[in-house]
Specification:
heterodimer, A: about 400 residues, alpha/beta, D-Maltodextrin-Binding Protein, domain 2, 7-stranded mixed sheet, about 45% helix, about 15% strand, globular, B: about 525 residues, alpha+beta, Periplasmic binding protein-like II, 4 domains, 4-stranded antiparallel sheet, 15 strands, elongated
């Protein structure tokens, strides 16, 4: 028995080695996406197989772009990955994505900002299917009419906050740059400035600009007025809202399903203006990207153009995502849905999330600065200036 | 000695399968160009065969599986980490140079007078493909892969239009492909290259071929890349092709950069600034983790070891539960319990004593919190090993001491504890080394936070060396800096090795002592 086990283990090891060495297949499409998208693509894949007799395999992969970074050059990557537009900078710098050319007629069927988000160095690298942005989610039972300005919001929130009873008027998850960016952007804060040719300039960071500091001061005011509380992380904020103990929050479309299940009478509105200026959230665009190491580039493109860029597929993808479709024929179909309307109105004011890989140096330091501000360890100006100084050094590789 | 036929045949069958698989995979690997891997694998298979066939190597049969896993899981990663620490592997430098060059050489540009052709594809029975291209002026060209295109007259009887619809259906023994067949043959079609004057013609999309030209040419003798469109020259500088006027081509590639990652660690004030503080906390953290878990585990073990205790088994089972719950889940639950505003711990403290502790916001309380979480996760292990070690201490020693009039405390202090340490000290050192690198607890509970005020320190109050490394390597520059991360992990490895060596040295001293007990 022992011998059997020994030989068995050796065999297993060899099989492992063989699977490492095998190359990606010609004449078969491999797609990596998350669990929400997988059933739709599997269905579309079956249609493709039925028509052309070319197999399509869909694998659920949590972080397809990270997997592609290691698997792609080894010849084991997928042909197609599905994900967010802010991945493309890093992927392109690593030589992992293939540009996709679209006919003008097809281009005109997409929301322009969604194509812009997937454009890098003048070339299109993704076929977008949905846009998303954070917005103001409010509990209609507690706040019948959403506030239009932050002053109104603060008044309403103060009236509804009773920390002894565990009731809260308004929360932003902290320390989270993504959800709090609209506060900083309204008064003129930005991440990267632009070069004359329209590309992002990683050394012009606008997070310590006068506008950003004004936004951060508003954040501090929320803390000082007792509205924003320590320990308001994602789970806490969503949990309180779903229990009906939180009247308003800044959140994204991914929370909608949970809120519906919790039976909350909710509404989605624009983020209130700050000093009369529009709060601009990050806009994220979801789309399909073709690997540079794909053996089936034209086949993948055919799959995308003939089978994914259709009203039916786009509507199926929409049904699983609660996000405004990036494909105009599908968007028109669902634009009366109040959730989609709310998110779409918020996204219309937004700015695409930066996609250059230097963004990696920004998140951590930015979150640290926000934390110091809400914990009242440092003033907004000092915290943001320190953070920007750190980001610049990190970007320059010092 | 007569051997049972069954065992011999089993051995032969399995070695046969193993060898067949090995030969197949070695051939595949070598054809893929991984000569080193193929060589090492062949050597390994030969050794395995020798061990299983030779009587003299019999004892090794029991060691082979362990050795194989040791090589795969331990030795290979160590050498790979060392190798990576001397490269610039990271964002922008993922591909090797050959892959980057291949990508550049596959790029094309379209000349100003570029023409696109519609086409019809034809295939013969042996699967060879020929294409007829139609220029915008309706001229027809017959094309074969890698050959110059030839103008043809379609009225030639060689071209057969069976259904008289003006579209050629067949010529020679080549038959026309319909749209579905074209898609099925797309992978062959996209690799076709035809020549016309100094240009090449390749497939642009499902309906067109296009005239284009190669954009870059690599010159291996001068190690430089030439832009064929505008004559620019790019040199290989630290993993990028860079032109004289500073233009950098994407993607870059992986190159060896010597000790640069290490010198960067020492020279950069960004990195070395918080190093001592982080190192100090890492040491304290590992020390506290071992002491607290061991103290609690030891106490519980001694209580549970008392034969007069009732329901021992139930208590023991209950106390092992924290160990059996996945650490990730426990960490996240604790993170919720410690929530300053809504966490249950602060709710209770507030009700009883009217205090609210900023658990994850205050540097010291955050440190307390991670130690408490680790205590919860770690004490069952200490309890189990202590319970085991207690069994090996002879009962008579305690009895004899009791007769001599020693109190329970004296028995514990002078007999039980020293004897326990002899067998447990190596495990405590192991636990120290483990906690030194206990990324999970830190990252899941605090992410190294709270942040510390001060210009550009990327390290938070609870960051230990390994989580600090993570931040340095993956939250700086342009994302992933695997080269730098490997360099730091090597340094951490050396630190742990030194600490463990000192620890084991003292353990040996303990063993000397135990001989006299």
């Amino acid at each position: 028995m022992k011998k059997f086990l020994t030989v068995f283990l050796v065999l297993m090891m060899l099989i492992g080695l063989i699977s490492i060495a095998s190359a990606s297949e010609v004449g078969k499409l491999l797609i990596w996406c998350d669990a929400d998208r997988a059933p739709v693509l599997e269905e579309v894949g079956k249609e493709f197989t039925a028509k052309y007799n070319i197999p399509v395999e869909v694998q659920e992969v949590g972080d397809p772009h990270r997997r592609l970074t290691t698997a792609g050059p080894a010849g084991e990557g997928a042909d197609l990955i599905i994900g967010a537009h802010d991945w493309i900078g890093e992927l392109i710098e690593n030589g992992l994505l293939e540009p996709i050319s679209l006919f003008t007629e097809l281009r005109s069927k997409f929301v322009p900002v969604s194509l812009e988000a997937f454009t890098y160095g003048g070339k299109l690298y993704g076929l977008p299917y949905a846009t998303e942005a954070v917005a103001l989610f409010y509990n209609k039972d507690l706040v019948p009419e959403p506030p239009a300005t932050f002053e109104e919001l603060i008044t309403i929130a103060k009236g509804l906050t009773n920390r002894e009873k565990g009731e809260y008027g308004f929360l932003i998850q902290m320390p989270d740059p993504y959800h709090s960016f609209p506060l900083l952007s309204a008064t003129g804060g930005y991440i990267f400035g632009e070069n004359p040719d329209g590309t992002a300039n990683p050394l012009d960071i606008g997070l310590a600009s006068e506008g950003a500091i004004r936004g951060a001061n508003l954040l501090l005011r929320l803390v000082q007025e007792g509205i924003e509380v320590p320990g308001a992380d994602y789970q806490t904020v969503i949990g309180l809202f779903n229990e009906g103990k939180l009247a308003m929050m800044i959140a994204g479309p991914w929370t909608i399903e949970g809120i519906r299940e919790a039976g909350i009478n909710y509404g989605i509105a624009k983020i209130p203006t700050i000093d009369g200026q529009v709060a601009k959230p990050f806009v994220g665009v979801q789309g399909c990207m073709v690997s540079a190491f794909s053996e089936n580039k034209l086949l993948t493109r055919t799959f995308l153009i003939d089978f994914v860029a259709t009203k039916e597929t786009m509507l199926k993808l929409y049904e699983r995502a609660n996000r405004p479709p990036a494909f105009l024929p599908a968007l028109e179909e669902v634009s009366e849905n109040p959730d989609i309307k709310g998110i779409a109105i918020s996204a219309a004011d937004g700015i695409p999330m930066p996609k250059i890989p230097e963004m990696a140096s920004v998140w951590g330091a930015w979150a640290d600065a926000l934390e110091l501000i809400v914990n009242q360890k440092l003033g907004p100006e000092q915290a943001l200036k320190d953070a920007v100084e750190h980001m610049k050094k990190a970007i320059q590789g010092e | 000695m007569e051997k049972p036929l069954f065992s011999i045949s089993l051995k032969i069958i399995f070695l046969g399968i193993l060898d067949a698989l090995a030969i197949w995979s070695i051939i595949t690997i070598i054809f893929d160009g991984y000569y080193w891997v193929g060589g090492i694998l062949s050597l390994g298979v030969i050794i395995i065969n020798y061990i299983f066939l030779s009587e003299r190597a019999y004892p090794f049969r029991y060691m082979v599986p362990g050795l194989i896993f040791l090589v795969i899981m331990v030795i290979y990663p160590i050498f790979y980490t060392i190798y990576v620490s001397f490269t610039n592997y990271g964002t922008g430098h993922i591909l090797n140079k050959e892959q980057a060059i291949e990508q550049f050489e596959n790029q094309v540009y379209f000349p100003k007078d570029s023409v696109s052709y519609t086409f019809q594809a034809f295939k013969n029975d042996s699967g060879e493909i020929k294409i007829i291209l139609f220029s915008p002026e309706e001229e027809a060209y017959l094309c074969e892969n890698k050959k110059i295109i030839v103008k043809v007259d379609l009225s030639d009887p060689r071209f057969i239009d069976q259904d008289k619809d003006g579209i050629i259906d067949q010529f020679d023994n080549y038959k026309k492909l319909d749209k579905i067949q074209i898609i099925q043959s797309l992978n062959e079609l996209q690799n076709l290259r035809f020549k016309k004057d100094e240009y090449i013609i390749k497939l642009a999309n499902l309906t067109e071929f296009i005239v284009c030209n190669k954009k870059y040419q690599f010159d291996p003798s001068l190690d430089r890349l030439l832009d064929l469109e505008n004559g620019k020259i790019y040199h290989d500088i630290e993993g990028y092709f860079i032109s004289e006027d500073g233009e950098r081509l994407t993607p870059g590639f992986r190159v060896k950069i010597g000790f640069k990652n290490f010198t960067k660690l020492i020279r950069s004030p960004q990195i070395s600034g918080p190093f001592l503080r982080v190192f100090g906390w890492t040491f304290l953290w590992a020390f506290l983790s071992v002491i607290t878990t061991f103290a609690l585990g030891l106490t519980l073990a001694i209580i549970l070891n008392d034969p007069y205790m009732k329901l021992r088994k139930i208590y023991r089972t209950l106390l092992i539960i924290p160990y059996s719950i996945p650490g990730f889940i426990s960490c996240l639950i604790w993170c919720g319990l410690f929530n300053t505003e809504v966490g249950i711990i602060n709710r209770i403290l507030n009700n009883l004593f009217q205090v609210i502790i900023p658990w994850l916001q205050h540097p010291i309380w955050a440190k307390v919190a991670v130690v408490v979480v680790n205590l919860w996760l770690g004490f069952p292990y200490m309890m189990i090993i202590t319970l085991g070690a207690l069994q090996s201490i002879p009962f008579e020693l305690g009895e004899a001491a009791a007769i001599d009039g020693a109190s329970r405390w004296q028995q514990f202090k002078s007999i039980t504890f020293p004897l326990l340490l002899v067998s447990l000290a190596p495990l405590l050192i192991g636990s120290f080394a483990f906690n030194f690198n206990n990324f999970n607890v830190i990252y899941l509970v605090t992410q190294g936070r709270p942040a510390i005020p001060g210009a550009g320190t990327p390290a938070g109050a609870t960051d230990i060396l390994i989580s600090y490394t993570y931040r340095l390597a993956f939250e700086g520059a342009r994302g992933n800096q695997w080269g730098l991360a490997s360099a730091v992990s090597l340094i951490i490895f050396i630190i742990i090795a030194v600490i463990s060596a000192i620890g084991f040295h003292y353990t040996r001293a303990l063993e000397e002592v135990s001989k006299n007990v």
